[in-house]
TrEMBL record:
GO biological process: D-gluconate metabolic process
Similarity comment text for this entry: Belongs to the gluconokinase GntK/GntV family.
Keywords recorded for this protein, A-Z: ATP-binding, Gluconate utilization, Kinase, Nucleotide-binding, Transferase
Name of the protein in its database record: Gluconokinase
Gene3D superfamilies linked: P-loop containing nucleotide triphosphate hydrolases
Enzyme class: transferase
Annotated EC: 2.7.1.12
Provenance organism: Succinivibrio dextrinosolvens DSM 3072
Length: 171
């Protein structure tokens, strides 16, 4: 069984932790979308300046190409990417059939609390507001599974895996 999954959400929602566990469960490759940001984006975020739509286009194009490459090689993969706006998700979908998005969401307060505990990440806590402002909650997109992050990481992973397996069984 091959999967192509994008774990999405605002910074601090647990994308990397959950994405790695999903990839491990499905014996899939794991790619942190942050690693594919162009240098200019990384510098901008490190300076505490939020990215705009224009900044994100080359990044989303790279992610789309990675998803296409996975499909071409019949390889399973899990990519983490904020994918905050529908047009970003649509860019990832373009030419990539069968994507499953796992949207991790939670209150701003919970996520801020988690971000304050993180170390070594270039996303600054004060940029959280811009992430929430940009988020277009995907409640009407058929390929998105919305998961509240109020539970433990283990419970979130279990729920995500069950939902992915259900989707794959229904295909």
């Amino acid at each position: 069984m091959t999967i192509k999954c994008v774990v999405m959400g605002v910074c601090g929602s647990g994308k990397s932790t959950i994405g790695k566990a999903i990839a491990e469960h499905f014996h899939s490759c794991f790619i942190d979308g942050d690693d594919l940001h162009p240098r200019a984006n990384i510098i901008k975020m490190r300076e505490g300046r939020p990215l705009n739509d224009e900044d994100r286009i080359p990044w989303l194009t790279r992610l789309n190409d990675v998803l296409f490459s996975m499909e071409n090689r019949k390889q399973s993969g899990v990519i983490v990417c904020s994918a905050l706006k529908r047009k970003y998700r649509d860019m990832l979908r373009e030419g990539n059939e069968g994507l499953i998005f796992i949207h991790l969401y939670g209150s701003k307060e919970l996520i801020r609390e988690r971000m304050l505990k993180r170390q070594g990440h270039f996303m600054k806590e004060d940029m959280l507001n811009s992430q929430f402002e940009a988020l277009e909650f995907p409640d009407s997109e058929n390929d998105v599974i919305n998961i509240d992050i109020k539970d433990s990481p283990e419970q979130i992973v279990t729920q995500a895996i069950a939902q992915i397996e259900k989707r794959l069984a229904d295909e």
